[in-house]
Structures are given as C-alpha cells and as structure tokens.
Design a protein that fits this description.
The complex is a heterodimer of chains A (236) and B (172). Chain A is mainly beta and 236 residues long. Chain A has strands at residues 2-5, 11-14, 18-22, 40-48, 53-59, 63-70, 73-77, 82-85, 89-94, 99-105, 112-119, 129-134, 145-150, 160-162, 167-173, 178-182, 188-200, 203-206, 210-213, 218-235. Chain A has no helices and 20 strands. In chain A, a hairpin with a 3-residue loop joins strand 2 and strand 3 (18-22). Chain A is globular. The mean pLDDT of chain A is 97. Chain B is 47% helix and 13% strand. The model of chain B has no long low-confidence stretch (mean pLDDT 93). The chains are: A mainly beta (236), B alpha/beta (172). At the A-B interface, strand 5 and strand 10 of A face helix 1 and strand 2 of B.
C-alpha cells in the first residue's frame, strides 16, 4: 500500500525569513491525520533567508537529522559543537536528556534549503550526542547512499548512527536511472522527494511530495524528466 | 500542565556567560522544563562589537514583559563583574520591579546563575530579585562558575518551579 502526501497539502509556516513546509504536525500546524508515520515524527522542508535562522532552543528525547539541499547551515549547541553543514553532508543530533542549539543560514547573501527529520528514539534519557559526516556527490548518484542507521550497522562508507531502528538513504537519479530497495517483512518506508521528479513504485512524485509505503516488498524509485533527489527511510 | 517554563536572561559579550546560561538551560530541560533564552539589550554605540557580539545580536531577542509573565521561573545570568544597576540590566530590572509591584511575580521562582566573581553577581542580584517577590533558589552547594554547576542549578530551579506550580494549584 502506498499513500501519497502531496507537497501542496503540507502545513505551511511563513515567518518572512522562513518558508517552512511541514509534512507532519509541527508547531502551529496540527493535523491529527498527519501526526507522523511510524517512528517518523517531524519532516520539515525549510527555506531560510540569508543571515536568518532559529535562535537557541531546546530539544529532549528526539533523534534529529538534518540534510541540506542547497546552501549552508551554521550550527551551535550546548555540547560546544560548532559546525557548518552543506550539501552532501548529514547531521545527526541525539537530544537525549537535553540539548540547546541554534541553526542559522551561514550565508549573508544566499538562502538555504534544508530538510529536518525528527525520529522517536528507542528510549528516553539517552546521553546527548552530535555527529556530522560528508560524502562525495558521486556516492548518491544512481544508487542509494546510506546516511544514518542504528548503532553498529556495517556500512560501505561513513554514516551517522542513531538510537532507533531506522535507516535513512539518499539517492540522486537522472531521468533514465532507477534504484530498488527491498523491504523486510513488517518494515515500512517513507520516500521524500527533495528535488526534481521521480516515480515511487510507479506513482509520480515531484519536489516536496512524500510517500508512505506499507506491506510492500520493495521500493522502486525512478528518475523522471531531468531526474530527482530522494530521501528514503526504512522504518520499523 | 505541570511542565514549568524557565526564562533565562543573560548578558554576555565574550560568550562565557552565554555558555553558563545555556548550561543552566540544559539542566532545566533535563528536568523536563521548557526554556526561553533571552539576552538583555546592549546600550551605547556598538561600532566596536566583535563577531561574538554580532552573533548574539542575531541569535537572541531581548526579554519582554510577556516572557516574564509567562514564565514560572526567572533566572538571570549576569557577567561576573555586573551589578543590577549596570546599564544593560537597568531596563530588565525595572520591568521586574514594576511587575513585582503589580503582584504579577507572585508564585514564581527566581535565581541567579553563578558566573563567578566570588559570588558577587549572585549576591548583588539576589536582593533585588527577592525584593520583586520571587522565591529565590540559591546556587547548588559548593557552586563554582562551571557549566556542570550551572546545569545542576538549572535542574534544581526547574524542579522547585514545578513543585511550587503544582503546590499553588492544589492550594487554589
């Protein structure tokens, strides 16, 4: 079964400097029909104006993944981590018992487009942690590049580790390319298009669209037109 | 809702006091409080502001009356050498005095983050906060101006704010 979440049906927050689209309930956007999918709790598609961002705020008991599509984000937190996150990088922050952080567009002239994902952890009161990895753009071209997985998952290349049985992949597909991901029995998936156009198990999706998959043996993602970029979550 | 809201108001130019304020906030979050972090306004020309100060101007807003009224705990984190009459603190302390006179701080907790200076800032700010009607939570025993002690103090402040909030609700 596949359920499409169209980009235009998502929640919208307009703060001037921020144009945010919420796939699931978040902040002032609350929709009981879209309170997450499996352990995915938040999936925000943020476009942040030059020099603007989120001042210091707190998180607790949440696995937070951030993926930058275009531009660069400056991150600072109470663990004394100070980093800039750009395309072909992923940040994984485990809020655990509590983290205070800020996220700002690192550029004073260009906007930044980022995707932030919140995932329920396996348990509360974990020790907070921060990880950030980078990878070569070629590693996502025409194949699924694993970005985040549970601790101790063997990986071909550097990945981030999270406190939940979730795997997050990214793929960038040309119009004539496709990838397939097999789903084990009882597993579910979410596919989120972050750029361009694709099909997911035959369903046409464009930038900002998402798809929930349950009771499917596999997820097949194919590029359309000029192709697209997709984040894929393999979920319990 | 028994989840307390802790407002942490600080002044910093180098980032040192900011770090202690953030650490206090982490402690409050560890005790499952909601936090609001605010920086008091700089006064005078800022032509010589360095990158740290410019960053803080971007990242923080100044505390408002709504922030104070909506909080269950009001925590101040002044630099080690500051006193409540310092120009940067004058506006915020005047706001607390007015709200105190109006009885709008009743039932709220107050605290001063230990930022050093032989407790001078703690001693100098504690009196005025007490005078506004806040229920003061002292620093943890053996306190020093470290992130670890600020975090422990944050937990204590949140716990007491929660207990006071629940107790006052039951008493109503």
């Amino acid at each position: 079964m596949i359920t499409i979440r169209k980009a235009e049906d998502r929640g919208h927050a307009d703060r001037g400097w921020l144009q945010a689209r919420h796939t699931f309930s978040f902040g002032s956007y609350q929709d009981p029909n879209h309170n997450g999918f499996r352990v995915l709790r938040v999936l925000n598609d943020d476009r942040i104006g030059a020099g603007k961002g989120f001042g210091p705020h707190a998180h607790r008991d949440m696995e937070i993944l951030t993926y930058v599509v275009d531009g660069a984000l400056a991150h600072r937190d109470s663990m004394n981590e100070r980093h800039t996150l750009g395309p072909n990088e992923v940040q994984a922050m485990s809020a655990g018992t509590g983290v205070v952080h800020s996220e700002f567009n690192a550029s004073e002239s260009e906007p930044v487009h980022s995707i932030q994902i919140w995932i329920d952890p396996t348990r509360e009161d974990l020790a907070p942690s921060y990880q950030q990895i980078g990878f070569d753009a070629a590693e996502k071209r025409g194949r699924l590049r694993l970005l985040a997985a549970p601790h101790a998952t063997p990986a071909d290349g550097t990945i981030t580790y999270i406190n939940q049985d979730v795997r997050m992949y990214v793929t960038a597909l040309g119009g004539d390319e496709q990838v397939e991901h097999r789903l084990s029995a009882g597993r579910h998936a979410w596919a989120q298009v972050v750029r361009g156009e694709v099909t997911v198990n035959g369903h046409r999706l464009k930038d900002g669209d998402g798809a929930a998959l349950s009771d499917e043996a596999a997820v097949t993602i194919a590029g359309r037109g000029d192709g697209g970029e997709v984040l894929l979550f393999d979920l319990p | 809702m028994s989840q307390p809201i802790v407002l942490i108001v600080f002044y910093s130019r180098t980032g040192r006091t900011e770090t202690l304020a953030l650490s206090h906030g982490v402690g409050a979050v560890q005790s499952r409080a909601l936090i609001r972090l605010r920086r008091v306004r700089d006064l005078g020309p800022q032509d010589d502001a360095d990158d740290e100060v410019r960053r803080m101007h971007k990242e923080y807003v100044v505390p408002t009356e709504g922030d104070v009224v909506g909080a269950d705990a009001v925590v101040v984190a002044p630099p080690a050498d500051a006193d409540p009459s310092a120009p940067e603190w004058d506006e915020f302390m005047a706001l607390l005095r007015r709200l105190g006179e109006e009885g709008r701080l009743a039932g709220k907790v107050g605290a001063v983050v230990d930022t050093g200076g032989e407790f001078s800032a703690v001693r100098l700010f504690a009196g005025p906060l007490f005078g506004c009607g806040l229920v003061l939570v002292p620093p943890v025993p053996g306190s020093s101006p470290t992130p670890e002690h600020a975090t422990a103090h944050g937990r204590l402040v949140a716990d007491i704010a929660r207990a006071l909030k629940i107790g006052l609700r039951r008493a109503d």
